[in-house]
Amino acid sequence: MPQQVQGVIARAKGEPVSVETIVVPDPGPGEAVVAVQACGVCHTDLHYREGGINDEFPFLLGHEAAGTVESVGEGVTDVAPGDYVILNWRAVCGQCRSCLKGKPQYCFATHNATQKMTLEDGTELSPALGIGAFAEKTLVAAGQCTKVDPAAKPEVAGLLGCGVMAGIGAAMNTGEVGRGDTVAVFGCGGVGNAALEGSRLAGASKIIAVDIDDQKLEWAKEFGATHTVNSTREDAVERIRELTDGNGVDVAIEAIGLPQTYEQAFYARDLAGTVVLVGVPSPEMKVELPFIEIFGRGGSLKSSWYGDCLPSRDFPMLIDLYLQDRLNLGGFVSETIALDQVEAAFHKMEDGGVLRSVVVL
Ligand code: APR
Ligand code: ZN
Ligand code: ZN
Question: Which of 126, 138, 149, 222 sits in a 20 to 30 Å window from 202, CA-based?
Fold first, then answer.
């Protein structure tokens, strides 16, 4: 029987979101219904609300979530009712050219549920990132459910489903930060702080956090920054060179999505170092760099999609490290809120006063 539950809907561009009744179908082949326990509020949700992603309104928002599998459809063997899972937006297909090359972390044909959730009047909903988890229950592809240790609290675990994984993965997977490496991270929001954490976990020797906000730089120290630079007061590139014997860092991670900070990352890097772009640019932005510098500095310029994560490999491992107190995931949760407080959480996010507000159901 399809179920009626409450969910957070963005009906039109720029309009405040509302809690409405949605209809969640029974899971079909390859699908699962998940009882959501917690879901973080991410910039991407706001971006959907503002029409910045596409025009497929109405959206069912929310995508950084943990919960319990309630039911599964035909042919689902990897998860079962009762399993505690983090939802991911990289359910790998196993068949695309990237999967066939043994690189499922880049899968070009990821799965979402086939059936649609709807409003009561039958209007089909577009779930944010194919998840839609600001809802008591949601329908996803079974491959979007990654089992993790239930000892991790849902408001913490769910954050690994998006921004925190993107940041940790930017350092550990894309940047391949290794023991003794020096790292600089530009932007200390949720993603940047997670990149600091990832660098610490990987054994980086110096971890330099760059931001324009002193409060953010204070918080960055709790996520592993060994040095901080306020780039409104100091030249970030100069300061990073000073801190690294005049050389620059091995890995420079841009976690904002701005041309000027990408350029700073480019110049703050040592010869043969790596620049990682995990911040998401807007379509009109352009970067101009001296071509000879791109050649002359060597190394690599990489982009990190979702931290180049493989959920089945990375989520359970990171949850275990969190449970052993080796990864500060709890620090990302600024507040827990109810389903009807998502709009207020968007405003707090815009004001920069929180790392993550997390809806707890
Ligand atoms: N120089 C340095 N820091 C800056 C600058 C700048 N010019 N502009 C903004 N910042 C800082 C902000 O002060 C803030 O601390 O960057 C941080 C951005 O953090 P959030 O807005 O919280 O964003 P976050 O959720 O971390 O995402 C960052 O990654 O995945 C992408 O879409 C996401 O592009 C976004 C980026
Ligand atoms: Zn694939
Ligand atoms: Zn997100």
Answer: 149
